Amino acid sequence: MNDYVLEARAINKSYVLGSSRIEVFSKLYVRFEEGLFITIQGASGSGKTTLLQLLGGLEKPDKGIILFRGQNISQFSSKTLARWRAETVGFVFQSYYLLPELSALENVDLPALILGKGDRKKATELLEAVGLEKRIHHRPNELSGGEQQRVAIARALRNDPSIILADEPTGNLDEETGKQIVNLLLSIQKEKNKTLILVTHEKEIACLGDKQLLLSNGKLTEIQSNISN
Ligand SMILES: Nc1ncnc2c1ncn2[C@@H]1O[C@H](COP(=O)(O)OP(=O)(O)OP(=O)(O)O)[C@@H](O)[C@H]1O
């Protein structure tokens, strides 16, 4: 049994734009234990978003492999990868990415509908769990930023993923609302024993992690661990 829920082995990743090539990672190794809250900090442009996209199967590495519980997801077909992503990973982004024409309820149920498992009762329960029982039929533009992020969190949880990848989830929120969102993510992570990997530039949030990683010059280093071995 592999103790690591996610592992990146010898990852290379570059972007080519016109005649220029940006190398983000060269031989990156990192692994994440199951059920932990890991925070990642790093300067703008250091590759934090790229890393989450690779780990969550939204981007493919140029070289190297990503393993989920020991299974190489980098060799999955696009279809298999899309299904794995829908079942296994919940994404939370800075900009929420809710569909504007759908209600909160419809947005939350969408990941399950895609798998042919739509169930409005379950979506409603998730909205209740994030404190939005009175906003179920609101559209995103009828919700505050914090409420939209709560909808996005409920959506991320809809297929009961084992991994939550959160990319600057508090980036568009005021400090107080940001704290509430992080506390919500943390309580879900602990209660359901999920793996939460969260990118943030806020030190106060980063230091809440069981482990704090820093991304710099294409390498990850552990700057703090609150785990006793
Ligand atoms: N689709 C793309 N095409 C070309 N270059 C890209 C693309 N996505 C990212 N990059 C480049 O790759 C590098 C890493 O970008 P990434 O968004 O992963 O960094 P980041 O650490 O998340 O930055 P920020 O904190 O500013 O969001 C940057 O130099 C960026 O310009």
TrEMBL record:
The keyword Transport applies. Keywords: ATP-binding, Nucleotide-binding, Transport. Gene3D superfamilies: P-loop containing nucleotide triphosphate hydrolases (3.40.50.300). Signal peptide: none annotated. Residues 6-227 form the ABC transporter domain. InterPro entries: AAA+_ATPase, ABC_transporter-like_ATP-bd, ABC_transporter-like_CS, MacB-like_ATP-bd, P-loop_NTPase. The keyword RNA-binding does not apply. Belongs to the ABC transporter superfamily. Macrolide exporter (TC 3.A.1.122) family. This is ABC transporter. It comes from Methylacidiphilum caldifontis. The lineage of its organism: Bacteria, Pseudomonadati, Verrucomicrobiota, Methylacidiphilae, Methylacidiphilales.
